[in-house]
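Comment thread on ticket #2218

A.B. wrote:
> Attaching the input chain for the structure job we discussed in standup.
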Amino acid sequence: GGGGGGGGCCGARRRHVIFVGDSLVTGVGCSQEVCTGPALPRAFADFLCRALRADVHWAAIGSTGSDVRRLRTELVPRLAAQVESVRQAGGRVDMVVLLCGLNDVKRASPWRTPIGFRHDLAELVGEIQGSCGAETTVVLPALPLHLAPVFSGQWPLLPLLSSFAGLWDEQKKRLSEREPPRICFVRSVEADSDLAAQNVEAAYWADDGIHPNDAGYKLWGEHIGRGVMR
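C.D. wrote:
> Ran it. Output below, let me know if you need it in another format.
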């Protein structure tokens, strides 16, 4: 899947942001009636537009169901084409937001470990940096899996599930510590956030219980935006 758009703020140089990743980028969970593209990139771009007082153009390059290895083989060539398109228009890519880990957690095994994930992720990030150049920041957001309604009511397994999934996000954090500020880790949404409120699950989560809906993606996109502005 793919898509693109832009925010309508005036002022500083136009920024270019590319989202790369799995179903969270393609917009699984979004309303089928909404035809303006995936909600997460739109929300993130709108937040940056207001914060920077600049036009923010976004593109989304996604592959539903993909783990990091498949993202690398399938999406890096498409990313390179998108980067070249931006350059041909006289711009540069300022950020690549990489959404990954959900399907790696699902496929965990003695042969698919968090350490192995970090190795695969490092190779993917390296290829993204090679395509985009030294001025591009790669953003690695933690995933709010521990807040998903599909896991609610799973006590006493919930703390274990949260800790287990968190091992993959910890690899993103460790990778970011190698190359600040070229790699930026954005911490997870906290348990006391609106996205986690037990009495409004239906308002922020899709029917499958693991993907946000349009409103949830908007909250999360703004959270990621605040994270990169810190």
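A.B. wrote:
> Thanks. Noting for the ticket: Residues 68-88 form the longest helix (21 residues).
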